[in-house]
Amino acid sequence: MSNIYVAIMAGGVGTRFWPSSTSSKPKQFLDILGTGKSLLRSTYERFLNLTPKENIYIVTNRDYINLVSDDIPEISEEQILAEPSRNNTAPCIAYTSFKLMALNSNANLVIAPSDHLILNENLFIETIKEGLNFTKKNDALVTLGIQPTRPDIGYGYIQFEKSQYPHKVLKFTEKPQLDIARSMVESGNYLWNAGIFICKASDMVKAFKLYSTEIFDLLNQPEIYNSPLEKRFLEEKYPLTPNISVDYAIMEKAPNVYTIPGAFGWSDLGTWASLHSEMEKTKEGNGMSHPQIFLENVQNSLIKLPNKITGVIRGLENFLVILDNDTLLIWPKDQEQEIKSLVNSLKEKIPSHKI
Amino acid sequence: MSNIYVAIMAGGVGTRFWPSSTSSKPKQFLDILGTGKSLLRSTYERFLNLTPKENIYIVTNRDYINLVSDDIPEISEEQILAEPSRNNTAPCIAYTSFKLMALNSNANLVIAPSDHLILNENLFIETIKEGLNFTKKNDALVTLGIQPTRPDIGYGYIQFEKSQYPHKVLKFTEKPQLDIARSMVESGNYLWNAGIFICKASDMVKAFKLYSTEIFDLLNQPEIYNSPLEKRFLEEKYPLTPNISVDYAIMEKAPNVYTIPGAFGWSDLGTWASLHSEMEKTKEGNGMSHPQIFLENVQNSLIKLPNKITGVIRGLENFLVILDNDTLLIWPKDQEQEIKSLVNSLKEKIPSHKI
């Protein structure tokens, strides 16, 4: 049995990619890229090149258990970890690490989001293997770093020590101002934080013991995991954990954090605009969901319509046109961050299944 | 039995109001105004205030007979006149006049399009009655005139003799240049030609005999009408008639053409823009098909979505956004005349039922 485990985090609530993504079926369960597979399923299949399917776990909110098992019917019920509440990534990763450590004390673990785009899958797996080799032999928490290609203010930045490899992480900077992002990118000393972590489960548990005592104390009952009592224990304790990201809870505090740069072509697909920038486009810069969309004097826009809908559009620049879940969104692409607040303000006016 | 007859022309092919209007179900069969009734049905019901339903005839293309009888099930099969080919309004009106004259030699006839908007229905009927009183006693062809409210270049203009009433028509001008339209409107001597005609059927037949001999000769077989032979006769002769409008064939030539101005609130609903200008709008000038459409920084636009589709739209000015027949049109409102040529150019790419 391999010691290599993968935990795919698939509990996100889907406030982005609206109206395609809704809280009842968030982004990770959608075929955002038009590949015929959900982002979760693509992530799962990618990791089959790393470890047998029995070693791949999906961590999700309990509301989405059925969506996960529908999407990946070949994994067992035990491989779907259900969070009883939404408490951000730190409790999620603590729970996963406790459970896999109890299952296999040598578990060497990859923790990855379910909804990212990876263009070069071979290189991705090679990079992961490099990290696993390192963490197998060292008490280290590795986070994959992406070479920045633009001063994106939506990402976290990793400052790293160039002289050693894997690089020691010097500092994390979350979502910087544009001028700061610009100088960080120009300096060459920063990588984007992809949120893909590699470490032994036991080393992650140890890190929680040292740097996030509250979560550690709540979940530290090793004999309970993988037993019939796990579910009830979790339902009682998990909701009491603080709502905090693993970056704040662990990564920014632990001294043994390392990064391996990966040039495998990555996007967190955090916005429609990021999908637009990754997808195939016409020479006018338009990305379209299918060929029955006819554009005149349209530039740099993303047009996503159901296959049966013909589109005839003239005179838009830098727009999103999305028809999904019986909702038509027409919105300036560079004002995407304001969709969420508008939709929140409409919560009592729009049918709840559309949000 | 009343001598007052109505012939509603409902054979139009529906190249406007695309994508709602298609050749398989053109504009007149659609509830364009959101009243719960098609334009044809609204026109029919309007004329019930003038004459019993037995005296109301619908002239349509034979492809649309079922659409007519579905829409107005209470009229008999004999009241639906089927054109075997599309030959414009002159042959259509000649056929109708021959047929109704054969039915009732005193038939006093209103010929009206099926797809216009009339705001003040009482005043409309009063104006029609005035015309019928005049044509009952005179060999006159009356066309209703509308007081122009703007220099519209899509309409025909009627120059009229002010000193007598009903006014003698001096000259017709079809779709003038903008500067000419402007000076015509300013002069006060012109009305829009609404295409609503009033005359005795026998006087119209006489006019065809005098001014449109080719059509008259082809259709002049009075004993055939309303007999079992009518259908075959029509199938043979009608397609041989020239494709010409009644304006060119008769009205511009006959000396006995009169106009009665009507201030009943009229639009030919010839374009989406004309619908927009007639419909109820927000203070930003937006017309919407239902309340589940949320607009931000949108002005002077027409948004027409199926009821089940929620709309969330920002940053459009002077646009049409129409989702119908599985087609989404987003188009600058003032470039509407170019939709038709685009759609024609796409004929081999778009499924035929959508055109």
Summarize the model shown.
Chain A is of the alpha/beta class and 355 residues long. Chain A has helices at 39-47, 65-71, 89-103, 121-137, 178-187, 201-211, 213-219, 230-237, 246-251, 272-278, 339-345, and strands spanning 4-9, 56-61, 80-83, 108-113, 117-118, 141-146, 157-160, 167-173, 190-200, 257-262, 266-267, 287-288, 293-296, 302-304, 310-314, 319-324, 327-332. A five-stranded mixed β-barrel of chain A has the order 6-9-7-8-10. In chain A, strands 12-14-16-17 form a four-stranded mixed sheet, with helices on one face.
Provide structural commentary:
Two copies of one chain form a homodimer. By secondary structure, chain A is an alpha/beta fold. Helix content of chain A is 29%, strand content 24%. The first copy, chain A, is built from eleven helices and 17 strands. In chain A, helix 3 (89-103) packs across helix 6 and helix 6 (201-211) crosses helix 7 (213-219). Chain A is globular, with a radius of gyration of 21 Å. Chain A binds chain B through residues 19, 292, 294, 296, 305, 308-316, 319, 321, 323, 326-332, 335, 338-339, 342-343, 346, 349-351, 354, and chain B through 19, 292, 294, 296, 305, 308-316, 319, 321, 323, 326-332, 335, 338-339, 342-343, 346, 349-351, 354. Strand 15 of chain A pairs parallel with strand 17 (327-332) of chain B.
